[in-house]
Design brief:
Strand order of the largest sheet: 3-2-1-4-5-6
CATH class of the largest domain: Alpha Beta
Radius of gyration: 26 Å
CATH superfamily of the largest domain: Crotonobetainyl-coa:carnitine coa-transferase, domain 1
Distance between the termini: 43 Å
Number of strands: 11
Shape: elongated
CATH topology of the largest domain: Rossmann fold
Number of helices: 18
Order of helices and strands: EHEHHEHEHHEHHHEHHEEHHHHEHEEHH
Strand content: 5-15%
Largest sheet: 6 strands, parallel
Structural class: alpha/beta
CATH architecture of the largest domain: 3-Layer(aba) Sandwich
Mean pLDDT: 95
């Protein structure tokens, strides 16, 4: 079986900020790529401070956002507004295999970082562009965050709300982290094409496109002018057998009974009400749907009589599909997350465990997560590897173009 990481030897320039594009670079680094974080001298990538400045982010003494989105990367501090700093980036571009950026197009134009400029520096480069709304169209230059482009514009926020209620505000970076996998997939496709043809090229993804992909069922229905009904409140579900219920110890669980005609009598017996299956209101799937509110009320009352652990044992014994509605505070003790390699140990002293990329490659386990870099921690080493002499590196530092 293979043991060498599949992206070993691939050099990636992470000329990006915030979360989605840098998170894609993290995944490439997990599987062997040498990821070079290019950031400005001084305060560095603004994402370094987001753990303190974003109001929606849980506070911690550990800068976990930076470790999560920059683990195992090397940092080169270059001032791209400085002519010598920008010229140094061109030399890194000639040396690299992949460049990832999510700078808005007007910023790229000012920095001469557009694809049409960069491709002439290195025709074999894979240029990975991430935007809010796409490469073309009336909104291509509009700034986008996951809350606006991924959730808001795609319809996800509207569809997730209950009828008569306002849309909910999504939690931080949920769309960013999902979208990172779309950009990762595009880069991997481009690397395969380069192996086949020797050619680099532009690969792009956006928050909006990923939001539409996540919202694919409803978006496709809308493309066919299908009627999309509002989401009813929990007490009036379309089906009571795919609904949330509170248990006796205050936890919430989800029933997900799909084969109703076979499993409904089993559920009735499990909750101690076997005669419920013969109730004319619930005797068939159409009747259960018509009387879903009444059935939900019965299940509400029944499921509050025992704790979640009790119901988990009872329902599991009958192969009734269900799950606990987990809380974030449950994650540290979730043995399944560790067994499935979704949570892994790190070499980061202040953050001993972290979240892994959401896939596993048999025979090529990902790199053990290491610390995110300090600003410019690897400037000298990386520039030297890219062919800069000691004198050139010293001159860059003295001019303020590098740190």
């Amino acid at each position: 079986m293979p043991s060498r990481l599949p992206l070993a030897g691939v050099k990636v320039l992470d000329v990006a900020s915030w979360i989605a594009a840098p998170a894609a670079a993290v995944v490439l680094g997990d599987f062997g790529a040498d990821v070079i974080k290019v950031e400005p001298p001084g305060e560095g990538d603004p994402h370094r401070a987001n753990g303190e400045t974003l109001t929606s982010v849980p506070k911690s003494a550990v800068n976990y956002l930076w470790h999560l989105d920059s683990r195992n990367k090397r940092s080169v501090a270059l001032d791209l507004k400085h002519p010598e700093g920008r010229a140094a980036l061109d030399r890194l571009i000639r040396w690299a295999d992949v460049l990832i950026t999510n700078f808005p197009h007007p910023v790229r134009a000012r920095l001469r970082l557009d694809y049409d400029v960069v491709r002439h520096v290195n025709p074999g480069l894979i240029y990975a562009s991430f935007t809010g709304y796409g490469e073309t169209g009336p909104d291509k230059d509009q700034p986008g965050f996951d809350s606006t482009a991924y959730f808001g514009r795609s319809g996800l926020s509207d569809l997730a709300r209950y009828e008569g209620q306002p849309p909910g505000v999504p939690l931080p970076a949920q769309g960013d982290r999902a979208s990172a996998m779309g950009l990762t997939a595009g880069i991997l496709m481009a690397l395969i094409r380069k192996q086949q043809t020797g050619e680099g090229g532009l690969v792009s993804s956006s928050l909006y496109a990923n939001g539409l992909w996540s919202n694919g069922i409803m978006a496709q229905a809308a493309l066919l002018d299908a009627y999309i009904p509002p989401r009813p409140p929990r007490e009036m579900p379309r089906t009571a057998l795919a609904n949330y219920y509170e248990t006796g110890d205050g936890r919430w669980m989800l029933l997900a009974v799909i084969n109703e005609d076979r499993m409904f009598p089993v559920l009735c017996k499990a909750i101690g009400q076997p005669t419920l299956a013969a109730d004319p209101r619930f005797a068939s799937t159409p009747e259960r749907r018509r009387n879903a509110a009444a059935l939900a009320a019965i299940l509400d009352s029944a499921l509050k009589q025992r704790t979640w652990n009790d119901w988990h044992d009872i329902l599991s014994a009958q192969n009734i599909t269900h799950t606990l509605i987990g809380k974030a505070s449950d994650i540290p003790t979730d043995a399944q997350a560790v067994a499935a390699k979704a949570i892994v140990e790190t070499d980061i002293p202040e953050m001993p465990r972290t979240i892994a990329a959401p896939f596993d490659l048999e025979g090529s386990p990902p790199r053990r997560p290491g610390p995110a870099p300090a600003i410019g921690e690897h400037t000298d080493a990386v520039l030297s590897e890219a062919g800069f002499s000691a004198a050139e590196i010293k001159a860059l530092r003295e001019s303020g173009a590098a740190a």
